């Protein structure tokens, strides 16, 4: 029997339903569908399954393209998706939804691939490249950020963005970079320029444009921010922070507590759902940067606190106000840090303080690692595994926190000589 459709909290007309038999990345597989009104009649269209690479945002784009190209789409009588235009077909039984390639409607994806795009080298603009790139990132929920689009819109959309890529000169980009550095942090400038660089390279890779990337390494030197946070909390500071957060937002308190206990990144906490809690095994299933799934063994205290939320398998443990996935930490965290005197309260004070000494949510992950390093009970390689770093180089920043071990090793020479 088909599962009940669940309405998307973010995209109008988009729904999804879970498979009672098939699983993907440790969770029930999802089939995304959308509905449209054509000539007064409600039509339902299957887009595809999560295991086929379909996302909620892709379903929304499919609905948009469907409405735009309805006449062309309906004229394709050989398309198997025609059968999905009725509620009866959209609610197919689970018995017909086994192999991934036989489920969903692959022809919808084929149809969407035929939507016309700009391909003329002489007219292909930076705006075209960035739109293509950000749309690509949006298909992967683990990538992309609204800050990328907002930063681009403010800086480039109405200036270089309107120019063909073939006409953009390195000197123009350098001038914009210099102006940005007068009023923005180097890390912010780096992010905005990197978006453009990656977008042009992606356009070249997709054969949408041919030429030299004006944002390439041989033409533009990127800012090099020295903004690695050196600050970590003492146990007393951590307790004080948790007390203040509890007064204002119990959910934010629990998120901070969870990061201190496990070293989870904020984005990993945002993605946690009810199905990710394995109570019997004492495991949290984490979706890391890049979309990789990994099992994280945690204490019973952590499991009990998260399980107490009583979330359904597909519900986020820490949802936003609409029930969807959170995208950023509440400003409450910054306000608490300002109140405690850890962060600057005014722009004038901000300019006088060392940027690396500020406290933000990621400081809690840094604190988790620093406390472990200071304990002297874990090696750097063990710490790398606990932090889930891809390279030991990322973990070496904590080496200076193990001075006692280093001293004991060098003392061996004193015994010999």
Automatic annotation (TrEMBL):
InterPro entries: CB, DNA_brk_join_enz, Integrase-like_cat_sf, Integrase_catalytic, Integrase_recombinase_N, Tyrosine_recombinase_XerCD. Pfam families: Phage_integrase. This is Site-specific integrase. Keywords: DNA integration, DNA recombination, DNA-binding. GO terms for molecular function: DNA binding. Residues 228-412 form the Tyr recombinase domain. Residues 124-204 form the Core-binding (CB) domain.
